[in-house]
Structure formats: structure tokens, C-alpha cells
Specification:
Blueprint (H helix, E strand, L loop, with lengths): L2 H7 L39 H13 L4 E5 L2 H9 L7 E5 L4 H10 L6 E5 L4 H7 L4 E7 L11 H7 L4 E5 L4 H4 L9 E5 L13 E5 L2 H14 L5 H12 L1 H20 L4 E5 L9 H7 L6 E6 L2 H9 L6 E2 L9 E3 L20 E5 L5 H12 L3
This protein binds ligand P1T.
Length: 374
């Protein structure tokens, strides 16, 4: 079945009791059992039908055998990191979401994991960073917030015995399917495009390997960072329109990127769909389109960036991304505060846009007004 059809139907059949077309919100913590120890449904941290439908749908969209849903993207990342043991080494992109850098360096470093941050768009740098104890390579592509693109298949080819985990939050499975490119694990913040309506915090992990799945499912239950059934329902509903939303996000972002490229208040535009992007050729090969995220440097420096970000009327000044509405932020002061004073620190003149699915002329008019304040 094609992606658009899977987005609407995968993991979902009419409710066996009533025929309800939409998967019910099974808002229960426990289930009455006919006899002891035989029930499929025993306790809702372990299993919930609304969550199962979501997990199966996300797995189908990523082309994976197994999906697991979590209460946030960070909870999903946390559970994947628990596959590692003290002393293990992880190679990660030198540009990642600030919270991901924080859990690596401020949580798991204390439990004996070791981290190297490398230029993931350079396969030679990745090869050099891999050590005998490297058990995981962690890729964001495109990265947050610099939108660097890694050649996932090339990294899969040189990672050796390490597992390749790809945070596919920015691309979504509509634009790129890391498992088909050789990744072992796909991680999502479903808070973003997968839900798409800025009304849920959630996460997901998708794998093909049965053994890895069994361990992750054990951890999902043992650690317990599961999403509630209402949140699962909302993400499941959001997924139905993922393909049409992504088409509009990508078209709008490309138009906004071209507009910014010509604007004198903008020093540099970073968008994988522009020929000027250093990994444009990889993105063109690896991704269906180029996504809804744009970063740019304000020509007037950090103060100008602050003025621009606070002058938009339609783009809300807010963290997060991937919703139908457009957002603007300054990563150094907002989403990436946790990398300040680290080698991953972000230029304070950098502005990040999450381009929504509004009419693109209205978005460009809003940015025209804001950039005039620079
Ligand atoms: O916020 P949460 O659902 O826990 O997801 C964390 C996360 C993981 N991976 C990527 C690539 C992300 O961008 C995020 C969250 N990012 C933001 C909140 C942000 O504004 O960048």
C-alpha cells in the first residue's frame, strides 16, 4: 500500500464492539480479566489498544516491523540510550537538538557512556570517530537547528557493529525512511510533524530487528514513559494528514527560502532545498522534498535577530516546530540554551523558522514586515 493510504489506515480497523471507524480512546488503566494470567490486556502501562494502533501506524509509515510510542521525544531517546552499557561509546552529530545534547552529556555521561560529536555530513570524520567500543551512531538529518544533512546510507556502510539511530523528526517518514537506508533504529518527537497540530508532546521508536524490539518493549514497560490514550488518539489523527501537510510545508518553505535569499537583512539562508546548501545534492537524493524548517542569519547580528523574531505577527515566537501554524525562534536564546558554552553553541544571530501551512503570501508579508525592523 502507498504511504498516503497507510497514513489513514495502518494499524486501524473498525472497533470490534461498535464498528466505530475511528480508533476509540481506551481511557482505562486496567482491564477485567476472565482468568488469572491469561489476558492479552492486563495493565495499561504494558498495553493499550489506542497506543497499539498508533505504534502499528507509525511503524508502517517508517517501513519498519515494530513501533513503540512514548510520552515525549526525549523519553523515546532515553529508552534507546538504555540499550547501552557503562563504558560504551556513542558518536553523534555535532549539531543536535539541545535537549538531546543535554541528555547525552548531563544524564548519560554520569552513567559511564562516552560521547564524541562529529561532522556527520563528512563520512570520513565519522569513520575516524568510531572506536572499538562504539555501540551507537546517533544521527539527526536534517539537524536541529543548522539543517545539516547526513548521508544515512554512507554512515550505515561504515558504522561496523554499532547501531545506527536516526532522529527522523525534521524529515518525517514522508520525506525519508532511514530504515530503508540502513539505519537500525528510528527515533521521533511525535510532538512535531507526526502529530502536526501543536497539541501533544510525544515520541516514538521504530525498529526492524526482533531482538532490539523485545528489549525496547521491555524497557518501555519497565521504565514506563508511555503516552496516555488521548495523546495516542490525537497523534493517530494527525498522521492521517501527514502527507498533505508535508507537501504544503515543503512548498511554503521553499518559497520562503527563496524570498529570504534575496532579502538584504538576511546574511545567509540555510535550507536543504537551496542549491547553496552544502549538502543539497545528498538531500536531493535522500529526501522526497526538503522539509518545512529554515534557518537564517540576520545580517544585523544578534540584536537584529531578536528584533526580527519579536516583530512577526503571524509567525508565533515559540519553541517547537512541525505544527500547521508557523513559528519563529532564536535557538541560542531558546531551544538550544543547553548547548551554550559547548562546542555545539549556536550563532546568536541565527533565526529558525518552522514554516506552517498557511497561505504563503501571508507568511512572506509577515516576514517582510518583521525584517524591516532589523
Ligand atoms: O520535545 P520532545 O517531544 O521531548 O522531543 C525532543 C526532540 C527530539 N528530537 C528533535 C530533533 C527535536 O527537535 C526535539 C524537540 N525540539 C524542540 C522542542 C525544538 O523546538 O527544537
Amino acid at each position: 500500500m502507498n504511504f498516503e493510504t497507510l497514513a489513514i489506515h495502518a494499524g486501524q480497523t473498525p472497533d470490534p464492539t461498535t464498528g466505530a471507524v475511528m480508533t476509540p480512546i481506551y481511557q482505562t488503566s486496567t482491564y477485567a480479566q476472565d482468568s488469572m494470567g491469561e489476558a492479552v490486556y492486563d495493565y495499561a502501562r504494558t498495553i493499550n489498544p489506542t497506543r497499539s494502533a498508533l505504534q502499528d501506524c507509525i511503524a508502517a509509515l517508517e517501513g519498519g516491523a515494530h513501533g513503540l510510542a512514548f510520552s515525549s521525544g526525549m523519553a523515546a531517546a532515553d529508552t534507546v540510550l538504555r540499550l547501552l552499557k557503562p563504558g560504551d561509546h556513542l558518536v553523534a552529530s555535532n549539531d543536535v537538538y539541545g535537549g538531546t545534547f543535554r541528555i547525552f552529556t548531563k544524564v548519560y555521561a554520569d552513567y559511564g557512556l562516552r560521547f564524541s560529536f562529529v561532522e556527520m555530513s563528512d563520512p570520513d570524520a565519522v569513520r575516524k570517530a568510531i572506536q572499538p567500543d562504539t555501540r551507537m551512531v546517533w544521527v539527526e538529518s536534517p539537524t536541529n537547528p543548522l539543517l545539516k544533512v547526513a548521508d544515512i546510507a554512507a554512515i550505515a556502510g561504515l558504522k561496523g557493529a554499532a547501531r545506527l539511530a536516526v532522529d527522523n523528526t525534521f524529515a518525517t517518514p514522508y520525506l525519508q525512511q532511514p530504515l530503508a537506508l540502513g539505519a537500525d533504529i528510528v527515533v521521533h518527537s511525535t510532538t512535531k510533524y507526526l502529530n502536526g497540530h501543536s497539541d501533544v508532546v510525544g515520541g516514538a521508536v521504530i525498529v526492524n530487528d526482533d531482538e532490539t524490539f523485545t528489549r525496547l518493549k521491555f524497557l518501555q514497560n519497565a521504565v514506563g514513559a508511555v503516552p496516555g490514550p488521548l495523546d495516542c488518539f490525537l497523534v493517530l489523527r494527525g498522521l492521517k494528514t501527514l502527507p498533505v501537510r508535508m507537501e504544503r510545508h515543503c512548498a511554503n518553505a521553499l518559497a520562503v527560502a527563496h524570498f529570504l535569499e534575496r532579502h538584504p537583512a538576511v546574511a545567509r539562508v540555510i535550507y536543504p532545498g537551496l542549491a547553496s546548501h552544502p549538502q543539497h545534492h545528498i538531500a536531493a537524493r535522500q529526501m522526497r522534498q526538503f522539509g518545512g524548517m529554515i534557518s537564517f542569519i540576520a545580517a544585523g547580528g544578534p540584536e537584529a535577530a531578536r528584533r526580527i523574531a519579536q516583530a512577526t505577527r503571524l509567525f508565533a515566537l515559540a519553541e517547537s516546530l512541525g505544527g500547521v501554524e508557523s513559528l519563529i525562534e532564536v535557538p541560542a536564546a531558546m531551544t538550544h540554551m543547553s548547548v551554550a558554552d559547548s562546542p555545539l553553541a549556536v550563532d546568536p544571530a541565527l533565526i529558525r523558522l518552522s514554516v506552517g501551512i498557511e497561505n504563503v503570501d501571508d507568511l512572506i508579508a509577515d516576514l517582510t514586515h518583521a525584517l524591516a525592523q532589523a
